[in-house]
Design a protein that fits this description.
- The structure is a homodimer of 572-residue chains.
- The first copy, chain A, has 16 helices and 31 strands.
- With 572 residues, chain A is of the alpha/beta class.
- A 5-stranded parallel β-sheet of chain A has the order 3-2-1-7-19, with helices on one face. A 5-stranded parallel β-sheet of chain A has the order 9-16-10-11-12. A 5-stranded antiparallel β-sheet of chain A has the order 22-23-26-25-24, sandwiched between helices.
Chain lengths: 572, 572
């Protein structure tokens, strides 16, 4: 028989992800605690990441989204669940929270020994003219989803999505699935802000291929009613009529309650917690999309609303509430999204964050297949790896492709967590059968290539250094085959196929620094190894023409080459 | 300009996997070296892991199996490739290898500065009566494959496979694909020896479901000709007629040459190398399926013929040959196989190896879905995790299921490489979107459950402790729902659904130790948490009825329950 923890009265505000996990964990730790779970909406523990797919119909049965029903959860864990109940005030000194029953309007006070805030984050509704139009909707919970779906069910031939983040893209796919015309406006010059811009290019091309009109670097300046529809005016001057507008321009921590109680907040309004998930008040803990957490890669504090970390934070907060010791290690921002046939994923630091924080880094791009090329269904992915220039510690990774992207981002996420180096990636022993990988897995290949860069065996240059203004400073040698060169090439590149290089290297002009490129970087590496051993310095274009096209989608000739390339390109 | 390595004459014996990789790497390190690649067969660098799939037709075009052609490889890396050439003698003192041109029979000597042996391993042909029958074939190279395929193409209504390892199972699948009847005989009481027996059960059930007759614990004692067909006699006394027999009873290092040169071999006949891949002769290196390497988990030496390690060893050997310093970290045995619709994978130490070496360990089983249950296509896998009892370091993992098995085995393989603990798995930040995972990924869940076992929060018992002889020592409580209990139950188990436990726990007899079980272990964990807080000691059956059925496929009642369960079972 084990010793009983001190009975407590635990009140949890917010019954989705973190809140529901916390309540279940609390009951497992204490059979005698009073556990009150307060939720503003009608349901607890629903699958918020599934909402767009019920709109689109891929999750046909709405009940699938109710991971646990209110009754099931209450019975299994003996919880006092109060849905449609809002926490309206918090007296931290007296340890009482004021609740309002939304059905009756009745307000009452609830005492607690410990309070866990899991309020989540609310979609931002920018204060634009006309924003209150009833067809301008956001997506956070089941009711929001029902509203959007009702509009689409009733017939919405033209829809407008504002924001190109995860929710915006998932809604774009699902609205297209419903047959509506979709325009997506994004303020930034790229979709998917967690990715670096060049890695978002294949996603943008996939959106275009699937009939989504993507307007980058533009913004809505106002809305107006037009016979019940919405007319949106853009900063660029264009106007768009839409039967439905989905606002997905980000979320903001839902921390009014925390603020009213005097809890410490960050300048951006997130709740400050320590690594035990404790707020500035020792009886109040907070988890999920409302808190700021540490970034274990860069060491700073970040606001990263993701379901996985929210669940782990909840477990850690409850452990600490019940006298155990547990610490949250921070959030490295591992995320993934499927956009039509393309999968994009990221973990750790992006290049733009490394630049913004002034950290030294190196990077490589590779374009491997997800499994053995000789087995049917092989399909390339573009993998970007960021690492420290001294010891090669992995800092971040981004991958865009199809099948197998999720596997490699998870392996690389764990590599970052374990503080592994690119040499460790090269030596990783991963599972190989022709259906699942290669004897040299993409993770190994990334490690090999990065280690070659660190050792100086492979001197690389990056596509962005070959923009129109600087391209002429280099002699560019294309070592692909004539057919490949004819189909798409960097303007001014000299063709010498790899197989002819040993005979023809004397042809290469030596008046400028030499850049060698191929389709994805491998043949050019071989070429550079040869040239450098012959005394000819040269640099390999990392990721080859495939990544060059991601950086400069219109930078190749002939003009036909400017047509969007396949989302992913064959490894060369 | 970089400094040139000393020119060498490098001779490589064996042109598949390791040998071809080594030749390419050598050329990248030295443009001036003479590189001779000697291969007994007609082709170098073919996809040996793809051979069964050309027999079955999934890889329809034979040319896909030629990863690099002889000409392509020779041109790209300026190699002196000699196919259909056998190394017949080795004078290590004089640094000369004697080669025989198999077409002409001409023999000649080839000097070397460094010799790399990559001879591979040859299929074992046990000295059974009648073994020389022309319809008894093995599968190692393209010619072997062609012979097998020719027999099947000509019509082979009945086939016999001897051996239930990777090649045996892949051939079983591919011969069934061709419509032949397949019987598979395996000496051990299980297929797939790298797995523990209970984890092989779903694979055996999948073979049966797909019409493969599997005879475990039996062996062929002899063959006889019967009108051109083969009649095999088994130890059990049965006889079987077959139009084709595929022998897949293991491989043996192909080290006659090494032996003749006096290189140090292991008692099992593998070449002894250090972690630089150097043999007992400083001018001779060896890699691949012919060498014994270190096991980084258990610290002993192992013979693990796998393509991934062979490729990495080749790179390391060549680096050392050319004056760089590189060390091989050993092989932890990460492997995977698809058998019809089931995927089985393993990494690190198995339970049987831990037992055989007397190492202390703990284990847990979980039965998670590969992605969010609310998204279409969710499918369970059985995951077994082995870890140290003191600090929870991950020692090994085995997974059987469908989609997503490959991802989790790779993440766990890297966890072993990085010497992570089960707590690290619990805290791993992996990518979650409903198509790819769950907010609590199977890897996290394995970490949570294992950490609960280590902390004592979850006291587990294993199915093997509930065999017929010992089952009566326990009061077994089934906390599933009545319908689940009616469909399949452990004989003698008392039904108290989890939702009724708080009211009915007084009914549980207290005269014997209590075991609680559910479908997969989660509800039983909740039940045990409750009971133990009420002063009732109890143990949770790890992996629940799903794993119990893997250990005792005929151990449930009613008899209908003895029908093979689905390959993977719903998580409970």
């Amino acid at each position: 028989m084990e010793c009983q923890p001190v009975p407590v009265r635990l009140v949890i505000i917010g019954g989705v992800a973190g809140g529901a996990t916390a309540a279940a964990r609390a009951r497992r730790l204490s059979e005698d605690a009073d556990i009150v779970l307060v939720e503003r909406g009608a349901e607890v523990s629903f699958a918020n990441c599934g909402l767009p797919y019920h709109v689109g119909g891929e999750i046909a049965d709405r009940r699938r989204l109710l991971v646990q029903t209110r009754t099931g959860l209450a019975e299994r864990f003996r919880l006092d669940i109060r849905t449609r109940t809002e926490a309206v005030a918090l007296d931290a000194a007296a340890r009482r929270v004021r609740l309002r029953d939304l059905a009756t309007g009745r307000e009452y006070e609830e005492p607690y020994d410990a309070l866990l805030l899991s309020p989540g984050a609310a979609p931002v509704r920018p204060p634009l003219p006309g924003i209150e139009h009833p067809r301008i909707l956001t997506l956070r919970n089941l009711s929001d989803m029902d509203r959007i779906k009702a509009v689409v069910d009733a017939g919405a031939p033209q829809t407008l999505i504002v924001g190109g983040g995860f929710i915006g893209l998932e809604m774009a796919e699902n609205l297209r699935r419903r047959g509506t015309a979709v325009t997506l406006v994004e303020l930034l010059p790229q979709v998917l802000p967690p990715l670096d811009a060049e890695m978002a290019t294949p996603v943008q091309e996939e959106l275009a291929r699937n009939g989504v009109q993507v307007l980058l670097g533009d913004a809505v300046t106002g809305f107006a009613d037009e016979d019940g529809r919405v007319r949106a005016t853009l900063r660029s001057g264009a106007t768009l009529a839409a039967d439905l507008v989905v606002l997905a321009v980000g979320v903001r921590p839902d921390t009014g309650l925390a603020q009213s109680a005097g809890l410490r907040l960050t300048p951006r309004g997130a709740i400050v917690v320590d690594d035990r998930m404790q707020t500035s008040n020792p009886h109040i803990y907070a988890v999920g999309d409302a808190v700021e957490v540490g970034d274990p890669v860069l060491g700073d504090r970040v606001f990263v609303p993701l379901a996985g970390p929210a669940n782990r934070q909840a477990r850690i907060a409850v452990d600490n509430i019940f006298g155990r010791s547990a610490r949250f290690r921070g959030t490295q921002g591992t995320s993934i999204v499927r956009v039509f046939g393309v999968v994009a994923a990221a973990t750790g630091a992006s290049e733009k964050r490394l630049k913004a924080t002034g950290r030294p880094y190196r990077k490589v791009y590779i374009v491997p297949n997800q499994h053995a090329a000789y087995f049917p269904g092989a399909q390339p992915m573009i993998l970007k790896l960021l690492f420290t220039p001294d010891d090669g510690r992995v800092l971040g990774a981004q991958i865009v492709g199809g099948e197998g992207v999720d596997k490699r981002i998870d392996v690389l996420a764990l590599a970052i967590q374990a503080r592994l180096t690119v040499t460790d990636l090269a030596e990783a022993e991963l599972a190989y059968a022709p259906q699942f990988g290669s004897a040299k897995d993409p993770v190994n290949m990334a490690g090999f290539v990065a280690a070659n860069v660190l050792s100086g065996d492979d001197e690389v240059i990056y596509a962005e250094e070959l923009d129109e203004a600087r391209r002429d400073r280099y002699t560019i040698v294309d070592v692909r085959e004539p057919g490949e060169h004819a189909a798409a090439r960097i303007p001014g590149a000299h063709l010498i196929p790899l197989g002819e290089l040993r005979d023809r290297w004397g042809e290469i002009p030596r008046d400028k620094p030499i850049v060698v490129h191929c389709a994805a970087g491998q043949r050019a590496y071989y070429a550079c190894r040869f040239l450098r051993q012959r005394g000819v310095p040269c640099r390999n274009l990392s990721g080859g023409l495939r990544v060059y096209r991601c950086v400069f989608p219109r930078g190749v000739e002939p003009a036909a080459g400017a047509v969007p390339a396949p989302a992913t390109g064959r490894c060369g």
